[in-house]
Amino acid sequence: MCLLKETVKMCKLLILFVYVLKLVDSRVLTTIETTPKGCEWIMQTVDEEGNVEEPVLVCQIRTIGSADSVLKNLSQSQSDHVTVLKLECSDVLFFESSLEPNKYGSFLSSYRKLVDLRIEFCKIRSIPSNGLWIMRHLKRLSIRSHNSDWSAMTLDLHRDSLRGMGELKSLDLSDNNIWSTPEQVFCPLYSLTHLNLTRNKLQDVAALNFSDWGGGPLDPGKACAAGLEVLDLSYNDIIVLPDNGLSGLRSLKTLFLQDNSISTLGDRAFVGLTALTILNMSSNSLIALPPELLLSSRKLTHLYLQNNSLGVLAPGLLEGLDQLQVLDLSFNDLSSNWVNRDTFSGLVRLVVLNLSFNRLTRIDANLFHDLYTLQILNLEHNSIDFVAEHAFSELKNLHSLTLSNNRISFIEAYHFAGVYAMNQLLIDSNRIKFIHPQAFENLTNLQDLGLNGNLLGAVPAGIGKLRFLKTLDLGKNRIESVTNSSFEGLDILYGLRLVDNQIVNISRDAFSTLPSLQVLNLASNKIKYVEQSAFSSNPTLKAIRLDANELTDISGVFTNLQSLVWLNVSSNSLATFDFGHLPSSLEWLDMHDNRISELSNYYEVHNILKIKMLDVSFNNITVIEENSIPDSVETLFVNNNQIRLVEPGTFVRKANLEKVVLYGNQIEYLDLSALSLRPVSDEKDLPQFYIGGNPFKCDCKMDWLLRINHLSNLRQYPQVLDLDAVTCELVHTRGAPPQPLLDLKPSQFLCQYESHCFAVCHCCDFDACDCEMTCPNNCTCYHDETWTSNIVDCSNAGYREVPQNIPMDATEIYLDGNDLGELGNHVFIGKKKLEVLFLNNSNVKSVHNRTFNGVDSLKVLHMENNNLEKLRGFEFEPLEKLNELYLDHNKISSVNNQTFQKMRSLAVLKLDENKIVDFSPWKLPKKVDTGTFPRVTLNGNKWSCDCSSLASLEAWIRDSGGDPAKMFCADSENSETVADVISRCDNRPNAVATSVVQREVVKNNQLLGGGYVPLLAATLIAVIVVCLLSAVIFVFRQDVRLWMHSKYGIRIFQDVASTHDHSDDSDRLYDCYMIYSHKDEELAGRIIAAELEHLGHTLCLHYRDLHLMGGASYLADAMVSAADASRRVILLVSPALICNEWSKPDFRAALQGALHATRHKLICVLSDDPLEPMDPELRALLRACTVTRWGNADSGKNSDIQCLILSTTKLLKEIKKHPKFDVSLTQGTQQLPLR
């Protein structure tokens, strides 16, 4: 007994152990370690209803052919557990894919237990015969190549493409650019229930072979996929549905034909579709429907015919469809002549009827007499101007009626009689002027009433009888007033819309009869006054719109509304405002476009309010400070006001701040402390500020603007997101317009000063102290925050000499517009920091040799528009660092050659509009840092214009880009330009060159010694040497060719036939024709051919594709034809070929005939096996063709093409050295030249 118990216990443990092993084995694939690279496991729905989720292996691949290589690392047991696989190619980079067998065998041959396969975005051109037969257990297949993205790519199906997939239930071939399907392609799919062919280019339904009509009732045909339940042919190019085209689909329940171009339907187009329940033919070109079209489909529940051109509904078309629940006829051309009492007769189960966007003009009394189950009726956007008495009385279950956008003028008492169940009535955008007081008596359950866009002059009198009304829309009418009796009886109304009427005042008790009101819209009226506590009877109000009215004051209007959350009073005429008049519950406040000048907070409730969004833009606010903004604010709009001052600490207490818009105000000075915040935690984003569009005056205290966004590490300042829109008016502008902030440097942010003494300066009590800075009389002085920039502006100050008390630390001095005459020695002594000096327009007549002594740092010197007459060479000696020198518009007539020689940093030299006759700008020194000549302008000077003297000038003009048309001749009486003289010199009769420069070069060139004999002798010797070398190379061309290839891998002296342009091969049928021994069928067909075809090449195989049963003559014709139809010919040379085919004379003759005119096409692939003995004829053939070796000597097996193309001369040498041809060929790196 104990032994039995132990045995049972051991069996249970064994069963548990096996279960755990199975569980682990089933989960092994979902681990990170075993998931193939580029793949991931995700949960997705796998059934058509979307109810079942399973793990799906999703792999990103380049082409479909690489799927096997991506999945090759999975073991067989792991592969067996992959039941749902999704392969996604790139939807950006287009690569053509193929389902042909490759070196791994048939497509996904290792995954025989796949149940669901999905292929997305792989550009597949065709599904080959039996291409998917290996996946015989597949139940769901989806191939969506999205070939429409690549218009030239279409998916072609073979008749046997789907053969062997008898268990397939769902097939999705949508979006493949399929134009046609072969006959009976779906016949092997015996279990198919769902077929999706949407978004293709199908035109002929009959070609799908879904008809069993055949020759008629006496000779019926056989239909494919007879068990189909769902067929989707939408978004194709179908024009005609013929008779009996789908007659074999007896089990079809759902048929989608929308978005085609169907214009014609056969009378018997749907014969045989007895199980059909859903039919969608919307968005086609249908004009009329045959009366017997739906005769066989009596089980139809949903019929969609919208967006066609139907103008006629034939009598009896819908007869017998007593199961129909949804009928959509919207967006057609139906008129009341064809929609009458018989149109919908018998549709006793219809729930939804849509007749919108047609041309109906009237609703007759018996139009809907059988539709007693109808719940939704849509008649909007017609031309209805007449509704008969009791027109809707039979619609006992009608819940929603839409009559908007028609031409109805009156609502009579009998219009809605009998529709007790209606809860929504929309009659917007009609011409209603009058509504009978008893019109709504029967609508006891109405909840939503829309009367927007009519001509009502007052609130309809019968509204109060709608006790269950929740929303009422009376917008865009002509209502002038509302009183407490206007809405009496609407106790549960929570939404009232009175927008765009002509209401002037709101009295205290106007809405007192609406205790449940939550949303009130009074926008776009003419309201001038709202009485205080006007909404006190509406404690549940949460949102009010009073925008676009004429309000001037809202004090006390909303104080008692403790539920109010949303308030819009924008676009009014409010002049005063105080936060104390708002309820503490308010979160969203819009007051933009008013006349508010101050955000008052008299009762200091800024820390009590809960306002999150505050919009006070487009007002007249001038100052904002801490108490003028609630502490709870998150988003603040104060743009386009008149703000001039933002007080320091304004935003310090705004802990929830996210966005502030200060754009378009009048802020000139903004202190950094005005934007300071309470420290923001790292988990939150810094607030975003917008400050552009303000007239900032950027003095030395505003330089923080440049670095504001670099202070984020402090977490106490916001991010300014529109610095690119900020412009600055500089303190020292000299008439310049405002500059973009991002173009400025910190040294340009300046402040004005009269005198300054540094803290370390101890001699400021004495006038002779260099470190005391005093601004000269009639001058203005500026400095930046760090005193790095020190600008002294004495422009137009009336000075006759350089002021003596200019600060020693000056970096820029402006003395333009004075009358300085001569500049004496040492006038700028001690100005060691001076970089910019303006002396222009100051009547300077001469410069002494020590004028600029002591200003070694000067970089820019302006002396234009003065009266300088000569430059003697010593004026600018100390200015070795000068970058820019402006001397234009003076009276300079001569320039000493030494004037600019020490200026090794000169980049710009302007000498325009002087009187210079002789100057050599090409002799100026080059810049030390760049090695380039300075940019010199000489326009408007007078030059000596003889041809010899202009030679060098012309060369300089051409190199520097000068304009000789603006340079004039000194000895010319008619203002002749340098350009005219250069042209005249070039056209002289004795000119031997085309320019002055060329003539001077030839004349002065002594290389030839004055004759041509040395040149001719040198030329003759060179020609003789070249000829001798060419002869030697030609004689030894084979050796040279071999040496070049072996040494550098370069082929030279190629035969013309082998190197000519093969543009004429572009129309060949095949890329290559492969000849091999019948014993090498496995190597040639399964390995080499499979690899080449996988790479996209089209092959003709000798034994696979040629019919060789007709004798020797037929063999020769077949081989010649195949060679002519191919770009290349591949000959697989193996021991089997040498011993069998090559030993037959007829084969050799046929091969020679095939290669007679196409020998340049031949590529010989040599087997790794010994190729001896080899007869001379084959050896000669190998000498004349491109040769490669199959296999790798190191691996010892034929695993892949090794790309070993060798030149003919290389092979020839090896054959000569080894008569038995037992050689080892060097490996190359090039592919076979098939293209």
TrEMBL record:
It is a single-pass type I membrane protein. InterPro entries: Cys-rich_flank_reg_C, Dev_Immune_Receptor, Leu-rich_rpt, Leu-rich_rpt_typical-subtyp, LRR_dom_sf, TIR_dom, Toll_tir_struct_dom_sf. Keywords: Cell membrane, Leucine-rich repeat, Membrane, Receptor, Repeat, Signal, Transmembrane, Transmembrane helix. It is found in: Cell membrane; Membrane. The keyword Cell membrane applies. PROSITE patterns: LRR, TIR. The chain crosses the membrane at residues 1012-1036. One of its GO terms (cellular component) is plasma membrane. Residues 1-26 form the signal peptide. Residues 1068-1216 form the TIR domain. SMART domains: LRR_BAC, LRR_SD22, LRR_TYP, LRRCT, TIR. PANTHER family: SLIT RELATED LEUCINE-RICH REPEAT NEURONAL PROTEIN, TIR DOMAIN-CONTAINING PROTEIN. Belongs to the Toll-like receptor family. This is TIR domain-containing protein. It comes from Cryptolaemus montrouzieri.
